[in-house]
Amino acid sequence: MDLNLLVALDALLEENSVAAAADRLHLSPPAMSRTLARIRRATGDEILVRTGRTMTPTPRALELREETRELVRRAAAVLTPVQELDLDSLERTFTVRCHDALVFALASTLTTAVERAAPGVRIRFLGEPSGDVADLARGHTDLEVGATEPSRPEIAAETIGADRLVLACGTTHPLADGDLTPERFAAADHVKVSRRGGLRDVIDDRLAELGLHRRVVAALPITSAALELAASGSVVTVVPELVCRSAWTRLGLRVRPLPFELPPVPVIVAWHHRYDGDHAHAWLRAQVRDGLRAAL
Length: 296
Prior knowledge:
alpha/beta; 11 helices
């Protein structure tokens, strides 16, 4: 099927003239006559018949006129780049997957920005899964925010900034005051944040290099639960300082730098390359970027 015949048919039905349709489509009259012959074979109808010095559309052609015009209009809309994004009329639900600590930093600013600028847009936050999934590649999520560079070539990524890990504890905990040494840090009871329930991470590796070992009494899947437990005063936890600021401030926790060096934690936004030219998705990425930079 040659869909170019629709464009030619639309011109012929609009002009009721082979010569005028040819001029409209920048074709020669003989070329347009050959196209009309192909249209007649495809439809099984004469489409235009000569009446004296003019051409008259057949009843079938009159039936096709509005439908053909609409098909051509819709095809042109599909193949025309979007020039401007109308946020007032945008109706869309975006899915953002990120670590729960990043939800603290992002949810309020992002939902406020969306509510003000695009009332028809909804944001759905999902937590990190317990295992690796390919939701971006499958189109199940629009954006993922985390600390790991994507390994798939079809996934784009942008590093927004970095955070650092800090110790959080209640104000009555022994580590809330005094000289915080690696030895005192390791001697405390720890709760660890891990979506997979892991009891060991880079902190344990660093302590092992110093000849030390810490006791992890619990692994919790979300940061808020670990901070709540630390607020009870008996345990400590390690969290990203800046993205969790609102949470540990609200709970009145004492936050202190770790007594040893660790690499900063990057904050990376990832999306599938299929959305590179999507104006609405680009707008969402800008809102997420601004919200994270404000937190960092």
